[in-house]
């Protein structure tokens, strides 16, 4: 029984990885394609399922919505350079410097994956409008790609260090930085990651420092 259960779990994980691989390839294919109105295209779940070699219903068994799938792909892409870095190397920096570097790394991720990032932005905005602040919900794309929480942790360190005003709510400020970064990437499709990060940091961190 245990062996069969383990085998079933392995097959489930293999299917999940195959879907994630197919989704990453499909969004990458669309990344340089924009409609005549300048909108970023979205992945057709039927095409994604075909690429993964599974039924469309199987995709939805693993990922409840396109938004959750997109957030899962972006989370996987962000693992080494963003989330893993934030948990290791960033802790050796001051909180304020870690926030700056984290924004730069995330800007680079979003610029390299604009179509995917636009889908995550739309899904997060829709979920916020319908449900309010993030909750403990597996179908919430904001929980899957939880970068604002990572930003908030380092902003809290900056508050303790005295580099950020003590009346700043780190969670609220982190969400604002994250949303502004996403919007900047989507509204400036030809802007490189460096200027994008500089713009966002100039607008946000400047207002957070003690006066």
Automatic annotation (TrEMBL):
Transmembrane segments: none annotated. Residues 13-81 form the HTH tetR-type domain. One of its GO terms (molecular function) is DNA binding. It comes from the Bacteria. Coiled coil: none annotated. Keywords: DNA-binding. The keyword DNA-binding applies. Residues 44-63 bind DNA. This is HTH tetR-type domain-containing protein. It comes from Euzebya pacifica. The lineage of its organism: Bacteria, Bacillati, Actinomycetota, Nitriliruptoria, Euzebyales.
